[in-house]
Amino acid sequence: MQIVLKDFTKTFDGNTVIDRMNLTVEDGEMLALLGPSGCGKSTTLFAVCGIHRVNGGQILFGDRDVSNLPSQQRNVGVVFQNYALYPHMSVFENIAFPLTVRKDSKADVDRAVRDIAELTHISELLERRPGQLSGGQQQRVALARALVRKPDVLLLDEPLANLDAKLRLEMRSEIRRIQLETGITAILVTHDQVEAMSMCERIAIMKGGKIIQIDTPKDMYSNPRTSFVAGFLGNPPISFLKGRAEAGGFVLDDGSLRLPLPVASQIPDGTDLTVGIRPEHFGRAGDVPISGKVIFAETQGRENLYDVALPDGSVLRSVQPAQDDVRAGDSVSWKLESAAALVFAEDGRRL
Amino acid sequence: MRTRSYMVGLAFMSPALVVLIGFFFLPVVLTAVFAFTNMSTSTGISGGSYVVTGNLLTALKENGVPVEIADALSKASFVVDPEGIAKARDAGTDPAFLAEIEQQLGGRTFTDERLFERELKTLQHRPRSIRDLKLAVDQFELSILNSRFTSESAARQAIATFLPSAPADTVDQIVEASYTGWTWTTANFKQLFSTSDTWRIVLNTVFYVAVTLSFTVFVGLFLAVTTFYLPAGAASAFSMLWLLPRITPIVLYAVMWKWFTWEGGFLYTAADALGLPAFNYMKGSVPTAWTIVIMVNGFIGAAFAMILFSSALKAIPVQQLWASEVDGASRWQQIRYIILPHLRWPILFVTSYQTLSLLSSYQEIWLTTNGGPGRTTTVWALESFNTALNSYTGNLQYGLGAAMALILVIVGVSLSIIYLRLFRFDELLGRPKIEF
Amino acid sequence: MTRNYSNWPIILVLLLISAPIIVMYAFLLVDTVTTSPPGSAIPNGFTLSHWRFLIDPTATGDVWGPTLTTILFTASIVLIVLGVSSTAGYALSRLNMPFRRFFLGGILVMHAFPLVTLIIGVFLVLQFVGLYNTLTGVVLVKAGLMLPFGIWIMKGFYDTVPWEIEMAGVQDGASRFTVWRRLILPQVRPGLFALALFAAIDAWGEYMLPRILAPSADFEVLSIYLNTVSDPDSTTYNFNLFKSVGLFYTLPILALYAIFRDRLMNIFGGGTKG
User: Which of A137, A159, A133 minimizes the C-alpha distance to A81?
Assistant: First the structure.
């Protein structure tokens, strides 16, 4: 089922939180709403599932305008951050609840619950209470309950935030597997870019109630539209150099570094620019040599992470295969791939 | 669309609304309304009627109604009119006789029974027996004295047929005075503001509230702080003990105090054995009566204060206390500089809350000293209650009692609104997150 | 806490100020099974004769009738208070409605406001609707007067249930009523229980309302019965007999209090903490 938000507007007590937002989620697609807290991603989710009212615009499920329908009539499955399992009911009763309220026959309920339990791998937990389950198991129950009545849309609100690191990895692929197997249209709300990139076909990145960019994870990473997007995606994060345009290239403010940039040829000299360099594009290979001093070195096992201070004080980050030759305090002379540098105007726009 | 979700909310709220309107809103309105009436047992609660009694006539004569009019009202008169004829026919009087009466005497009025009788005896079809004649005479009798008129117009009409010549303002005066139901008046408030009794009761109330409140807060504080330092077992024993007065039914609690303080009771027996003055402490002297009233209420309040203070104390991070001990603070300094500052809000809360409930409480006083000896321990709420609902003379003055209660209601509502602001209760009002 | 201080002085002072309570309640227990010589408070003999009122109606009149009435009285009040508070508390905590702010403010004012002041008005209301001198009238008034407290307490308990449970319920297609009954109500069961206890203790001890609002009715609750027994002018007047009746009357409360002390503490303090 395709979901369309048309000029969606939401206000709280006269404050417009989201102003005329447009978004289309294709049938069977899993889309991430990614952004820092307070960007309006949860508000959008709550509007789609019918907890918040729409103050302007429309929400369409397929051809059906659901803007003024309460949750009960929208047929949306939701997984909440804290799972919101009903503590006084067994796992079976939890999953069966959506079916019993619409008065399905006992046999139908039983079959549906067992099918979905098999899909989510919780068949042996059906008699337990939520309090007796681990976080990952609770998550699976919440998913099963959201999916059992075959909703048109699945909404996931920070589903992995309450899990520890190992479970998070496991559930990431599990949720994706279940979504693919059911072929359901899904929206994932998260503040974690790794989650968004690894689980979703497309990412809508939000800031201050607006969608900044919608793209596939790969395009979004390599081709960010603003410095905010570039900074938000990638771990370890991108580093920025501030300087100005000069003779078709970029120079640091103190003139100590010069990068040839193809885009810079159309920019008048002296324009303030910001250049973003991802850590994997600064290291032993590249075309522009840069000297600096390692101020921070950290090993992550397979890779090492370095912060290198340039003479003017700006810092470049580098990630390299683990070696044992450089320590904090050493002076290094490494190289930068100028073709991969991202150039942004002063207002954050990509050039 | 919005209305649908409003309907759900109102449906859930409606049982409470019905009860609260019935037992809060209406009583407040009625208290306010009846404060401006002279309603009492003798006027009744529903509307009254118009009755001219002998006593009333005597009073009217003193108030300038001409003697002859008053006297005339007290006499019966005999009017030959269609109504009288009809009544006589129903009573079984000979129709021929009646026809004759109507023809001969129709429209005449007799103020003397014998005169009327004599006239009737002259008629041809008069009945043989004196008894039948008397019966016929009775049917024409019209008397205002002691007959009950349900409306003002009926009363006026009766007086007018009786005394066609009476001046209009005299009739007004009589009708007004003959009304037995309640009427609108501001006399209750005038009376309250002019009697010296009022001010004595106000002083009693202020004294009672102030002293009981201090007792409550200090004892409550003492209990909370000491039990805080005691080992858990002893602390829980004392807090259980002090909760007893709060959960014990009021009747039993009151009588236990009577047993404790009356002749033959515990204190009496003990004082007697020790050679101290022994008497009924609850009723025997003003200072002892006040002491007991304050303790009876103070013990209940202290339990309430202790619970609130204790739970506030438990919220103090224990590291703060350890730190202060390491810093060399004595226990007194610890109480003074760490514990009391933490209790500021609970103390303010208990003070506000108890002020209101003490202002209006009278159950405990009613069941113990009942305001005595004399009226020395009578407080405003008790006086209002006794005036309206518990008078020994049998005449309950609802109007005056309501006026007294209204003043308490106004004080109470104003104080509660001030407290709402003070404790910022409106911040507790979160917006419902589900908007449908 | 460190043990640098001796506790004995504190305990002594506490015992001293608690003396009236200790004496009154100790003698309440002791006097019901002992006799003492005139002019002394020290018992000198054991007897069960003060309890004869339980089987002998000539002692103080039948006690079981009033007991049954009191149970009925208390149970009705508890049911009404629970029923109305649990719906209204939910509405105030969770539902959209017009004048929501006003309702909540009103409940709070009524909660803080001393209700006995309204007794004259309540008396007049009962007169007008014809419930004066009836058990129904007294039950309704008593339940009504407890409602602001009950609603406030229940709202507090509902506030602690996570919103997500509620949201999950409506997402699962349940109506708000179903959500309330099947999902939320089970979560506030401890609150309902505490409120029921509190209401039961309060109703069981009620004296003034039956006395004033049904002075000549054909039913009698134990508080009234007890007060009649304790009338010094009555022929059966006897402090020890009275104490036995009083203890009989209070035992259920003491039992509830002893068993469920923690839950009650919570509500005694919690109702006013906001």
Answer: A159
Closest residue on chain C to B382 (Cα):
C117
Question: Would you kindly state where each structural domain of chain B is located, as residue ranges?
Answer: 1-31, 50-178, 196-428
Closest partner residue to B388 (CB to CB) among C120, C145, C204 is C120
Does residue A157 surpass a pLDDT of 70?
yes
What single letter denotes the amino acid at residue B255?
Answer: V
- Both A214 and A249 in one domain: the answer is no
Closest CA to B262 of B245, B283, B277: B283
Whether A70 has its CB under 8 Å from any CB of chain B: the answer is yes
**Has residue A24 been placed in a domain?**
yes
Structural domain contains residue A137: yes
Fold type of domain C67-273 = MetI-like fold (1.10.3720)
Q: What is the pTM assigned to this prediction?
A: 0.83
Nearest Cβ partner for B238 among C18, C83, C265: C18
A225 phi, psi to nearest 5 deg: -85, -25
Report how far residue C59's alpha carbon sits from residue C63's, in angstroms, rounded to the nearest whole number. Answer: 10
Q: How far apart are CA B27 and CA B18, in angstroms?
A: 13
DSSP state of B318: H
Residue finishing a domain among A225, A247, A281: A225
Q: Of the candidates A52, A68, A71, which has its C-beta nearest B1's C-beta? A: A68
Q: Which residues of chain C have a CB within 8 Å of the CB of A72?
A: 170, 173-175
* Lateral strand order in the sheet of B109-110: B109-110, B77-79, B141-142
What sections of A183-222 are H helices per DSSP? 193-199, 217-222
Report CB contact under 8 Å: B420, C105: yes
Tokens of B400: 């005056």
Residues A249 and A321 reside in one and the same domain: yes
Indicate the residue of C23, C123, C147 with minimum beta-carbon distance to B266: C23
Shared domain for A133 and A260, answered yes or no, is no
CA distances (Å), B255 to each of A109, C231, C232, C241, in order? 63, 10, 11, 12
Report the CATH number that the domain containing residue A314 is assigned in CATH.
2.40.50.140
Q: Which H or E run includes B304?
A: helix B286-314
Q: Single out the residue in A177, A196, A225 at which a domain terminates.
A: A225
Distance, in Å, from the CA atom of C137 to the CA atom of C131, rounded to the nearest integer, reads 5
Is the pLDDT at B1 greater than 60, yes or no? no
State whether B13 and C96 contact (CB < 8 Å): no
Chain C residue closest in CA terms to B424: C274
Q: How many CB atoms lie within 10 A of CB A8?
A: 23
A351, part of any domain: no
**Which chain C residue shows the shortest CA-CA distance from A145?**
C172
Number of domains in chain A: 2
**A245 found inside a domain:** yes
Task: Sort out which chain C residues have CB atoms less than 8 A from B240's CB and list them.
Answer: 261
- For residue B169, what are its two tokens? 């303002």
Best C107, C117, C241 member to test B by mutation, with max B CBs in 10 Å, is C117
Q: Which of B288, B402, B422, B266 is nearest to B355 (CA)?
A: B422
We find that the CATH architecture of domain B196-428 is: Orthogonal Bundle (1.10)
A17 Cβ under 8 Å from any chain B Cβ = no
A145 in reach of chain C (CB within 8 A)? yes
C94: nearest CA in chain B? B432
Quick one: A186 and A101 in the same domain?
yes
Instruction: Encode pLDDT of A173-210 as tens digits.
Output: 999 999 999 999 999 999 998 899 999 999 999 998 89
Domain of residue A158, residue span: 3-225
A55, B258, B368 from B281: Cα distances, Å: 72, 9, 11
Task: Tell me what the mean pLDDT of segment C138-147 comes to.
Answer: 91
- The whole-angstrom separation of Cα B338 and Cα B324 is 8
Task: Specify whether A171 is located in the same domain as A302.
Answer: no
What is the per-residue pLDDT for A349? 86
